[in-house]
Amino acid sequence: MVIAFSKTKGKVEPLDFHSHEYYEIYVFHGGDCYYTVGDQIINMVPGTVLLMNGKSVHKAHVIKNENEYVRSVVHFKSNVVDGLMKKLECSSLMAPFNRNSVSVRRVINEENLEKIGFIIADLQGLTSLEETDFIKKEIQLGIIKLLMFIDRACRPIKPEDSASINTKKYYVEEIVLYLQNNYSKEITIEKISKELGLTSSYLSRIFKDITEHTIMEYLMYYRFTQAKYLIEISDDQTFKDIALACGFQSSSHFSRFIKERTGMTPSMFREAIQQKSYISPNSR
C-alpha cells in the first residue's frame, strides 16, 4: 500500500493524535506548525522532513491560519520496496524507519524542497493509476528515488536542535514520557504532578496549551495503540488480559472504549486488524 499527497493545503481532516502500521515521509512546506512524535516536540520550518515508522503516536499542531499549512506526505509499507532495495544494495535508506524515534532532516535549499515536492507529486499521480506490474515498479522506484534524494539533499537535525527550548514544552515532553512509561498502571494528574514537582492545574493547562488535548485524552489514545499492537501480535490473549496490560480499569471499560473509538466490538476489531481492513482515522 502506498499513499502520496503533494503540497496538501489546509486541514483536510481533523488533526488528532494517531498512529499507523506504515512508514511515513512527512515534508513541511509552509505555515505555522509544530509536530509531536512520541515524547518529542519538533518546531517545523519550511524544509523540515520527518522520517518515521508511524507506530509512535504523532500529530501536527497548526497554530495560526490553517490555510497556510502546507505539507507533502507519503505512506508506504516496507515490503513495497524491500526486495528492490536489496537488489540495488541501498537497504540502509530504511534505517530511520526502524527506530522508535523520528528522524528529523532539514532540506538544504529551496530548490531541493521544490524537487522533493515534484517527486512526491509524481508518486501521487502513479498511485491514482490502475495498478499494473509496470506501475508497481515505477512506484517502487519513485519511493527509492525520493529517499535517495532526501538522503543527499537534507542534513540531519538533532532533537535538541529542532525542539524549542522553553519551559512549557520541556514539561509537556516530561509528561508524555511519564505516560508512555507508566500507561499500564493507574495514573492520575496528582501522581504526575507529584512526580514532576508541579501543581496539577499547571500541568493540565500547559499540556492543553501545547497539544490541544487533555493529559487523559492522550493517555487513553496511547493505551489504545498498545492494545491494538497486542491484538495484532496475539491470537490467544484474552481481551481481559489485554485490557489490564494496557491500563484499562476492566474488560468492560476496554470494550466500551474500543466501541466508542472504532464503532466495533473488540472481537470485530480483532478480525478487522487480522484481515488488514482496519484503517485508523485521522492518519494524514
Automatic annotation (TrEMBL):
**Entries under Gene3D superfamilies matching the protein:** Homeodomain-like, Jelly Rolls
The HTH araC/xylS-type domain covers which part of the protein? Answer: 173-272
Which UniProt key words apply to this protein? DNA-binding, Transcription, Transcription regulation
In which domain of life is the source organism classified?
A: Bacteria
Spell out the protein name for this chain: AraC family transcriptional regulator
Q: Which organism is it from?
A: Alkalibacterium iburiense
